[in-house]
Design a protein that fits this description.
The chain is an alpha+beta fold. The chain folds into two domains: about 160 residues, 2-Layer Sandwich (Beta-Lactamase), CATH 3.30.450; about 110 residues, Arc Repressor Mutant, subunit A (Orthogonal Bundle). Helices cover about 45% and strands about 15% of the residues. The chain is built from 13 helices and six strands. Strands 1-3-2-6-5-4 form a six-stranded mixed beta sheet, with helices on both faces. It is globular and about 55 Å long. The two termini are about 35 Å apart.
């Protein structure tokens, strides 16, 4: 594949340690801010040395796309999430072709926004649908990469899995534990940030900083995640969209549908239809 790199075929020395998401985020920032390659080929050649590390990240999706929003570099995790055995099956294709769902079209639209406007997408909370039928939360970052002449030559992206609640329990931090407990028991009501600062005894900046350190997301994103997870359970029941919206703390069904589509790429009714198809006997 021209201008395409398969990370999984790079030899590994066996001595690399598994990198964590902060390293990947720093890499993305360095690519977007400091590095000014002459061409896309130069960029890919520089990144090839990191291939073994990027392939060793089971909870991180990393990719580079060209100006046509086509994958030119991906790690093995992305291929596995798409149900593909080889990363070569991903290269040269945009997200809308790889995922082949409404969500894939949403991703491609995001890509063109970054490539055409140069605007970064940072810490975007998303619910991903995997080929196995499972769901997974992640935080997505997308940034343009500028060439030596100042033009956008590519886009870098990373999606970092948000670990399960069991691994994210702030047992050593009573203040954040109070906030977490409050959100989980009051998500069906209006939750104001001022209330969370009072509960925690922290300033807004302290709360955001500490919450993100423990939960890998902001308090607002945690509220959205908690509400949507409850909505996903209710969508499996015989309830209307309006009833579900009210049960999850949304002012009306329009606000709920808008938030749901923003996080998942599909409407509540489309999600319900998809789940019905997936659970239907073969």
């Amino acid at each position: 594949m021209e201008n395409g790199i398969s990370l999984s075929n790079r030899p590994s020395t066996g001595s690399e340690k598994q990198a964590d998401s902060p390293f990947i985020e720093q890499l993305i920032n360095a690519l977007a801010v400091s590095f000014r390659p002459d061409s896309l080929d130069t960029l890919l050649n520089h990144l090839s040395i990191l291939a073994p590390i990027l392939d060793a990240l089971p909870n991180v999706v990393f990719f580079i796309k060209n100006t046509r929003a086509e994958y030119v570099l991906v790690n093995q995790t992305l291929a596995k999430r798409c149900g593909l055995d080889r990363v070569e099956d991903v290269l040269g294709r945009p997200s809308r072709d790889v995922f082949n769902t409404r969500q894939g079209t949403e991703y491609t639209e995001q890509d063109y926004q970054v490539l055409k406007t140069g605007i970064c997408i940072a810490d975007k909370l998303e619910l991903h649908f995997y080929s196995s039928g499972e769901l997974g939360w992640c935080l997505t970052h997308k940034m343009p990469i500028y060439g030596a002449c100042g033009n956008v030559i590519a886009m870098a992206g990373v999606s970092v899995d948000i670990q399960s609640d069991e691994l994210n329990q702030p047992g050593t931090n009573e203040r954040l534990e109070k906030v977490e407990s409050y959100v989980r028991t009051h998500f069906d009501q209006v939750i104001r940030m001022e209330s969370l600062t009072e509960i925690s005894g922290l300033s807004m900046s302290q709360l955001e900083r500490n919450f993100k350190k423990i939960f890998h997301m902001t308090p607002l994103q945690f509220i959205q995640k908690t509400r949507l997870e409850h909505a996903l359970r209710l969508l499996a029941q015989d309830m209307t969209i309006t009833e579900i919206a009210a049960s999850c703390g949304y002012a009306d069904h329009s606000a709920f549908s808008r938030q749901f589509k923003q996080l998942t790429g599909v409407s509540p009714s489309q999600f319900k239809e998809r789940k019905a198809i997936n659970s239907a006997p073969a």
